[in-house]
Automatic annotation (TrEMBL):
GO biological process: protoporphyrinogen IX biosynthetic process
Pathway: Porphyrin-containing compound metabolism; protoporphyrin-IX biosynthesis; protoporphyrinogen-IX from coproporphyrinogen-III (O2 route): step 1/1
A Pfam family matched in the record: Coprogen_oxidas
Organism: Cardiocondyla obscurior
Similarity comment: family membership: Belongs to the aerobic coproporphyrinogen-III oxidase family.
Presence of keyword Oxidoreductase: yes
Protein name: coproporphyrinogen oxidase
Enzyme Commission code: 1.3.3.3
Key words of the record: Heme biosynthesis, Oxidoreductase, Porphyrin biosynthesis
Enzyme kind, highest EC tier: oxidoreductase
One term of GO molecular function: coproporphyrinogen oxidase activity
PANTHER family, sorted: COPROPORPHYRINOGEN III OXIDASE, MITOCHONDRIAL, OXYGEN-DEPENDENT COPROPORPHYRINOGEN-III OXIDASE, MITOCHONDRIAL
Cellular compartments per GO CC: cytoplasm
Length: 387
């Protein structure tokens, strides 16, 4: 299952009687969270027929299925199928926790090239707002984006054609005892003037609790470390530190949450191996998070806990709008779809002037960890992470 697209999927189909939303089971890119089982039918390769496989997605892919079928060895195809499957898996796992709410599926196109599928669930019993977005975008890099990439060491001229594929999700639960999760995995490719290609992967998964449960944090980090260790034992420590440094609200002197992993510009050891690593990371999202939701979704809370949750959401908004590189890239891109870019913002948030939690409180305990990131698994920190 880890040697190219033809091994990405288990393409047998069965009815899943527990869900009105999923009528066919296409195992596709399997996650570590076993939400269903498949019959013992002969496993067939993905290249047999994508037309059946894409029926398991939330919507039709942005690229025509026939085009994907003809170009299955192209990394652009592999990544589009990966992000579409990651979106579908996660949306269906979240819907299973709701009683009568499902995702609104909004498929959109972009006149400059490409488009996306935005899935949003609002006002649920468990999730106040959950957004899972896929974008498959092509065109010419705008000057601001080119400048940003040159600042990161990319060598490129002006008016560079590009392809970008990514999946991004932010989940804002209703209960303050349930943490927020964010994940984003993406692939970027540019065509140079000499007809050579530059490519790289990026992404990560991070957790933002409102009340600190150290057992939850250890479970979350352990799941991500397991995914990293399949590919390189040095990845977790390096990307954990990178995550702590990246999700830093400078003007507050605190991190957004308890971290996870984050990386960018990944173009080693090979394109295929980098893709397999990103696949493992995306597969780790559901087992890292869904058990935490199930554990806490019925916990008791009151007005005080809700107000703290709203204040912490305000910090989330500050980071996304001021510092997040992906948000800024999206806003700078011609033909940007602002509804999809800003889906990460919570339905409700709050800003209170000069708020400080009481000393010794549960709120101050969380703040201490946000100001001083913790080594949850006893790993040796890397000195190679980038901010």
């Amino acid at each position: 299952m880890r040697k190219g697209l033809r091994f990405i999927g288990i393409y047998c189909y069965a009815t899943w009687s527990k869900s009105k939303n999923l009528k066919h089971v296409g195992a596709g890119i399997l996650t570590g969270f076993a939400a269903y089982s498949v019959s013992k039918v002969t496993v067939q390769a993905a290249q047999t027929d994508l037309h059946n496989y894409v029926k398991t997605f939330m919507a039709e892919p942005i690229t025509a299925v026939d085009t994907l079928q003809k170009n299955q060895n192209d990394m652009k195809t592999k990544m589009e199928l990966l992000v579409m499957k990651a979106q579908a898996d996660f949306c269906k796992a979240l819907e299973e926790l709701e009683t009568d709410k499902s995702f609104k599926v909004d498929r959109w196109t972009r006149k400059e090239g490409g488009g996306g599928i935005t899935c949003v669930l609002q006002d649920g019993e468990v999730f106040e707002k959950a957004g899972v977005n896929v974008s498959i975008v092509t065109g010419v890099l705008p000057p601001n984006a080119t400048q940003q990439m040159r600042a990161r060491g990319k060598k490129m001229g002006d008016s560079v054609p590009f392809f970008a594929a990514g999946v991004s999700a932010v989940i804002h639960p209703r209960n303050p005892m349930v943490p927020t999760i964010h994940f984003n995995y993406r692939y970027f490719e540019v065509k140079n003037s000499d007809d050579t290609t530059q490519w790289w992967f990026g992404g990560g998964t991070d957790l933002t609790p409102y009340y600190l449960d150290e057992e939850d944090a250890r479970h979350f980090h352990k799941t991500l470390k397991t995914a990293c260790d399949q590919h390189d034992p040095s990845y977790y420590a390096k990307f954990k530190e990178w995550c702590d440094n990246y999700f830093y609200i400078v003007h507050r002197g605190e991190r957004r949450g308890v971290g996870g992993i984050f990386f960018d510009d990944l173009d080693t050891p090979s394109q295929s191996e980098a893709f397999q690593f990103v696949t493992s990371c995306s597969e780790a999202v559901i087992p890292s998070y869904i058990p935490l939701v199930k554990k806490h979704k019925n916990d008791g809370y009151g007005y005080h806990e809700r107000q703290w949750q709203l204040l912490r959401r305000g910090r989330y908004v500050e980071f996304n709008l001021i510092y997040d590189r992906g948000t800024k890239f999206g806003l700078y891109t011609p033909g940007a779809r602002y509804e999809s870019i800003l889906m990460s913002l919570p339905l409700n948030a709050k800003w209170e002037y000069m708020h400080e939690p009481a000393a010794g409180s549960k709120e101050s305990r969380l703040l201490e960890v946000l100001k001083n990131p913790k080594d949850w698994l006893g790993e040796t920190k890397s000195n190679n992470a980038r901010t």
